[in-house]
Amino acid sequence: MAVLVEVCDLVKGFPDGRGGWLSVLDGVSVRVDGLVCVLGPSGCGKSTLLNVVAGLEPSDGGQIRFYRDGHRVERDEVRIGYVFQDPRLLNWRTVEENVEFGLHSLPLPAAARKARVRAYLQLVGLEDFARQFPLFLSGGMRQRVGLARALALEPDVVLMDEPFSKLDEITARELRQELLGIQARLGQRILFVTHNPAEAALLGDRIYVLSGRPARVVAEVSNPIPKPRHAEAPEVAALARDIVGYLGAGQGAVSRRTFLVSGMAWVVGAVVAGLGSSVWLPGVWAQARVEVSVAAVGATGLLIRLVKDLGLDRKHGVELHVVPLTVADAERAVVQGRVPVGIFNPISAVRALAEGHALKLFAPFLLNHNFLLVRAESPYRRLEDLRGKRVGSLSKISGTYNTLAAILYAKGLGDPERYFQLRFGEAVPLITLMERGDLEAVALFEAHVSRLLATGRYRVLLEFNEEFRRMTASDNLFIALAAKPAWLEANGTTARQIRAALAEAVGAFRQNPVGFLERYGREIFGLETAAEIQLAARRLRGIYTARWDRAFLDRQIRQLRLVQARGDFLPSHVSPEEVFWP
Amino acid sequence: MSVVWEQGQARDWLRRGAEYSTDVLRFYVAPVLAVGLAWYGISAAGWVPATLLPSPERVLGRVVEAAGSGVLTAHLALTVRRVVVAFAAALVASLPVGAAMGFSRGLERLLTPWLVVALSIPGLIWALITLLLFGLSELTVYTAIGAGLLPMFVVNWWQGVKALDRDLLLMARVYRASRWRVAWDVVLPQLLPQLFASARYGLAWGWKIVVVIEMLGFGNGVGYLLYESYHLFSMERVLAWTLAFLSVMLVLEYGVLAPVERRWTRWRPRVTFGG
Question: By the CB < 8 Å criterion, does A57 face chain B?
């Protein structure tokens, strides 16, 4: 009976009243297969999204598809419950009559209907108020009636439109916990719209972050926090902070272009993913189909794009299905087993291993190329100038942060969190913050750096790779594809095929970096002019490697040992040897 | 509906009953008694000739006598029937027009000027026109009163429909409510408050105009009785019929309309001012 709702590239607008057109949803894609939160600033079109899904408003483009047990069904065949922002009760009908209202559409005898009403009123704790009229109840109780009305339908899908936003925090908390409990018990598909990051972090199995109007999905975050979750848990607060970062990116005009770039990369990723599944050909069936999570922007996105577009995966007997995620989430996806294969930073891999998540790196991807950027006109010259300053970094489990930490420990400066005033976030929000002057410096993975340097407004204060070379007389670590040991044991051949496909893509790029950047640079890096492309080609020429021989791995291991030795940052009881699959 | 009596409920009911009777005493009985006493005092003092201000007991005596003979009740019943029938007909006939105006922008623009005109026509003009058209028949009274009430009710439905909560209609659509259920559970209850307000106003207007029409040559109804008394120069009878007429109106207002309204709006918390 499991129902799945897929919203694909939904487009919706309204006349703006002055003869123009106001675009509200601009290609929003959401997949509802659990408790899914859609988070966005107020007025960004979240309610419109729900109304279109509910069939209350027609869409202007895109599709909404309903599946039951994998088979496509019409909306009319799916029971939909809707909890509105205001309770939307019939104030002239009693609480029980309100709950009953939705049940008249079901073929239920009166007695069964009444019994169900009682059961769901009990579920929301209102059985003693069944005969009351709504206006005699408190706001929280009224919202509960709305919840009972939706749930009593025993719907396949529940749409929730900021249902707790107008309540006092105490009541809202109570209801959120209740909702988590109810969903855990009944397992409905819930599309929960909110503007409250903490709420999304607490409730959502997956969280889609929308930009301001016109709304696009700027991030899809899977909630790694195990259930039961609690509002006070520090992980929830941390995840909420992460999400606030994404939200920030949706605002402020400065970020729009950078933003567009990442948005487009998303689309590219989706198209790549779509191709992967739609060009199944007879004879290709025998090929192993592997889902790979990668960061869609920047150099990771470029390499995987080459693999797909040149058909290198098929050529080597494997079908890669690309799941585009942000850098940090791509790593999380592998740890959580959402995808079998994904990019991983070796430092992150050692830390993951130390925390009991065994992972093995098995195919080289690209240099762990990170930079500390400052504004061109700022007075900072050395890392030490930034002591106590506001510095942004990719999230704590990212390779960027781990490398930064390794460098700081190695230089004897200690914990970066204490050395700087650190702000964690994803790349685009961090860039926005720096554009606004809220950050003095930002540590970024290569993905956005080409684009930022091309504007001339920024300069590199610290190139992590050079720093490493100075410290260790060899190159920095390489980000690689990782998988769980069990998967590698079972799919050794496939893993080698992926490795070969990547190696060939690296070779192709090295031969003609400018040509490829002319083709993909605009979509993946946001490069516009020939000069920008030239600059990026120079910077990216040496970023990929195809080597995975013993000497290469030994160097990687030596690097990791150095990081372990130079501070108490990376746990030294784990042997770096274990994270590599030769 | 089953009524479950519990101890607390019974006590509560008694307490509320006592409160209610105190209220009635203070706000209705006492003022009426005071006015009656003043009337009695003035007429007993003999300052005003009894032909101009008959004593209350003589007026009441005449009411009782006429009621007992059945004359008064027959005329009263006729008048009440005329108002109620015209009222109901206008209410029903106005619904499609008003609703259409509420739903259609075009009809709204087309009909609004006509509505303004209809509302400004004095009831007496309708009475004269219908009298000339239909003569001294019941149809004359019904049409005259109905024509006056119709535009008032059209405004009622029109504004009511325009004020319908669109969000609730969408809610009903999400929950796949049938047309009938939407009408009964969602739309009608929203129109009721406005309906009660215009019903009060319409009834009051109907009482005034029916008496005038009946005076124009009809041989029956309270209007005819009053007209007759006027020609007899009998203040005693004018006051008696007026008193009887007023009591019927009050019974309709407080005995029928108010309880029905209370019943239909009990979902609304009463607003109380002060302590």
Answer: no
* Cβ pairs A/B, distance under 8 A: 56
Q: pLDDT tens across A211-269, in order?
A: 877 888 887 888 878 878 888 888 888 888 877 776 655 443 222 222 333 333 333 33
Among B184, B261, B267, which would you mutate to test the A interface (most chain A Cβ atoms within 10 Å of its Cβ)? Answer: B267
Say yes or no for a CB contact (<8 Å) between B175 and A105: yes
Q: Domain extents for chain B?
A: 1-48, 52-264
* Nearest residue, CB atoms, A135 vs list B171, B192, B267: B267
Instruction: List chain A residues with pLDDT less than 50.
Output: 250-287
- The CATH number assigned to the domain holding A567 equals 3.40.190.10
pLDDT given at position B91 = 92
Q: Looking at the partner chain, which of B168, B174, B269 has a beta carbon nearest the beta carbon of A90?
A: B168
- Return phi, psi of residue A337, to 5°: 80, 20
pTM of the model: 0.56
Task: Please answer whether residues A373 and A458 qualify as being in contact, where contact means their C-beta atoms are separated by less than 8 angstroms.
Answer: yes
* pLDDT value of residue A1: 55
Are B267 and A80 inside 8 Å of each other by CB? no
Q: How far is CA A339 from CA A336, A351, A489, A579, in A?
A: 8, 19, 16, 18
ipTM of the complex, rounded to two decimals: 0.76
The superfamily CATH assigns to domain B52-264 is MetI-like (1.10.3720.10)
Interface test with B, best of A90, A151, A157, A191 (most B CBs within 10 A): A90
Number of domains chain A is built from = 1
- Interface contact flag, A90 B167, Cβ < 8 Å: no
Q: What is the per-residue pLDDT for A277?
A: 28
| Partner residue opposite A136 with nearest CB, options B171, B265, B269 | B269
> A228: cis peptide before it, omega within 30°?
yes
CB A15 within 8 A of CB A73: no
Whether residue A92 and residue B189 make contact (CB cut-off 8 A), yes or no, is yes
Residue A112 burial (CB count, 10 A): 12
> What is the rounded CA–CA span in Å between residue B95 and residue A31?
46
Model pLDDT for residues B79-117, shown as the tens digit of each residue: 999 999 999 999 999 999 999 999 899 999 999 999 999
Domain span at residue A325 reads: 260-366+477-579
Rounded to 10°, the helix B138-162/B188-215 angle is 150
Contact between A51 and B170 using a beta-carbon 8 Å cutoff: yes
Please identify every stretch of chain B with a pLDDT value under 70, giving residue numbers as ranges: 1-9, 271-275
